[in-house]
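Review form for a predicted model. The reviewer records the input and the model, then writes brief findings.
Reviewer: anonymous (R2)
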Amino acid sequence: SDVVITGGGIGPTKDDITREVIAEVTGRELVLHPGLLKDIEQRFRSRGYIMTSNNKRQAYVPDGAIPVHNPNGTAPSFIVENKKGVIIALPGVPFEMKWLFDNEVVPYLVKKFDLSDVITFRVLKVVDMGESAVDELIGHLIANSSNPTVGVLAHPGQVDVRIAAKASDKTEAAKLMDPVEEEVRRLLGSRVFAVDEESIEDAVGVLLRGSDKTIAVYEDLTGGLVAGRLLDASPEHFLMGIIGNELMAIQRLLANSRPPVILDEPLPDAEVLAGEVARAIRSQTGADLGLVLHGIPDIDDTAENLAKGRTIISLTNGSDVRSKLYKSAGRGIPDRTRMSINALELVRMALTEWLE
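Model under review:
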C-alpha cells in the first residue's frame, strides 16, 4: 500500500502501542516533540486539570515524523513518510478521527500525491419508507449509474440515498450530482427530508422556528428519545417532555387536562386514547402542538428490531389531530430509534401541511 492509515492506539495508556509499532516497522526511534507536549499541557490547563505524567507519552513520535495537531483531543497525530509509502496515525475517538481526516489528512494526501480528481458525495435522507420500497422507485438509477453512482443504505427509521461523483474539483462534481439529485427527489417526493449532515430534528427545528410554534410531548416506549430530539431541534420551542411507563401515567395526565377526561372501562381504542393524550398535554403545557408516542409491546417478544406490538403516534394543533399506527413496538435501540424518527416525521409532514 502507498498509504496506511491507523485509528487508535496513540493515547496515554500502556495498551496504546501504535506509535511504538510504527517506529519499529519504519526503523526509527521514538523522540519527544516539544511542540506537541506544550499543546497537551495547555489543553489540560485550559480545562482546569493537572496533566498526569503518563500523558507525556502522547508527545513521543517516530523520529522525523510530521506532527499533526489535534484540536479536539489530547492525542496528537503524526505522519511518517517512508520510501515504501506513508503511514498516518489518527486517534480512535470517532469525532477526533473524522475531523482530522477531513481537515488534515485529505489536504495532505492531495498535495503529497498530486491528486487532480476528487470523489465527493451527497446523501439524501429518506424517512417512513423501507429500503426495498426506495429501491423499487430508484433501482434503475442504481443499476445504470456510472458517474455519478447511486447507492442505498438502510438505517432504523431512515434510508440514505448516496450520490457519488468523480471530477476535477468539488464544483464540477456538484454539477454532475445536481440532475441526479433532482431525479431522485422527483421519484421519492416529500419522503426526502434532509441532505448530508442534516437530521430529522434539524428539519423539524426549521419548521418550528419558521412558524414560531411550541411543542410538548408525552412518550413511553421511547423513553425520552423524542423529547431529546425535539430539544435539539429548537430548545426555545420545546416546552415539556413527559416520560411515562404505564397506563397510570396516561390516566393522571388525562385527569389533569382541561376539561378532564375520564377513562371508562373498557378503555377506548389506542388511537383514540393517543389523540386524547395529545390534546391533554397541549392544554396542560400551553403548547401550540401536543405530540404523543404510545407503544403497546408484545411482552413475549424480546427482539431488538421490529418486535411485535403496536405503536401509535398522535399530533394535534388543537383543531386537527394526525395519527399514525405502526405494527411493531419494542424496547431495543433500533425500534426506539425508528419510532422517534417516525414521530418527528409526523410533526414535519403535519406542520408543512398546516403552514401551507
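Findings: The chain has a mean pLDDT of 92.
Further findings: DSSP finds ten helices and 15 strands in the chain.
Recommendation: see findings above.
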